[in-house]
Amino acid sequence: MSQMFYDVTLLARQALTPGMVRLTFGGEGLRPFRTTGVGDEYLRLFFPDPETGKLHLPHISEDGRWTYPDGQDAVRCSTYTVRRFAQEGEDVTIDIDFVVHKGGLASEWAQKAEPGDRITINRPRGLYSPPKDYAWQLLVADATGLPALSRILEQTPEHVQSRVFVEVAQKDDEQILPYHAAATATWLHGCGNGVAPSRLEDIVRGVPLPATPGYVWVAGEQKVVRAIRKFVRKELGFPPERYELVGYWIANAEEWEAKWDALDPAIKAQIDAGWDSGRDRETVMDEYIATLEKHGL
């Protein structure tokens, strides 16, 4: 089994827009890191306790479950996508782009971090997996999904037609997307991203889709992505291999977490049993979402 955790050092920082900063990580601890090569590759960032400086990492069981030493929850971790992976000889560097906003463990850390600061990351994995026969793709994201969307576009074969929609808080948050001759991009300003209602569901519902084989990839706020999933899966009838729809963040997260913490343990056990059942992943996801919505989550 390959290494699970890597101690990394912040090497450089770059302000991309008023709403996003790029941090470049490297160091000797990152040398064993291996990329999946997947466009929306993601990993977790683990931060030390600001008062004690102690870092709590999970123990991972054979079935993939995470438990924590001393009975402490790993509250100081966040999930982010890898915008860029580079290797020169033994030296490895990765870029991670952070949305700048008030609150949020990782965003606040990123705004204050300086070269030389250290954190720990885990082994990456990716989700984006279009079928080999795809002739087109619909890529839709808010600011949190922009780094993954950009990397996906960089890796897209020349023959694949790409329709791209990105929702940002303001025009100044636009970025120059990787060039792709068969891609058309539209920027949506002043919506979603915690500043106003999202327009992403309306966009997905309204965009004409070719009759040829394709793929839909969406990343954004949890409930927005849920609504899009219902449309793509239920109304359009796309099979699971034709889409990847991922909730990257939760609006009003503190309220959501309080409701989750108060949820009956029997219901949580039922949710866990569903994921452990070995049944079709998307069917279990349907049940999971229905349970969350039933309890206002």
TrEMBL record:
Short name of any one Pfam family annotated for the protein: SIP
Top-level taxonomic group: Bacteria
GO MF annotation list: oxidoreductase activity
PROSITE patterns, per database record: FAD_FR (PS51384)
Entries under InterPro entries matching the protein: FAD-bd_FR_type (IPR017927), FNR_nucleotide-bd (IPR039261), Riboflavin_synthase-like_b-brl (IPR017938), SIP_FAD-bd (IPR013113), SIP_fam (IPR039374), SIP_rossman_dom (IPR007037)
CDD domains: siderophore_interacting
Residues in FAD-binding FR-type domain copies: 3-131
Family: Belongs to the SIP oxidoreductase family.
PANTHER family reported in the protein's UniProt record: FERRIC REDUCTASE, NADPH-DEPENDENT, NADPH-DEPENDENT FERRIC-CHELATE REDUCTASE
Protein name: Iron-chelator utilization protein
Organism, as annotated: Pelagibacterium halotolerans (strain DSM 22347 / JCM 15775 / CGMCC 1.7692 / B2)
Lineage, opening ranks: Bacteria, Pseudomonadati, Pseudomonadota, Alphaproteobacteria, Hyphomicrobiales
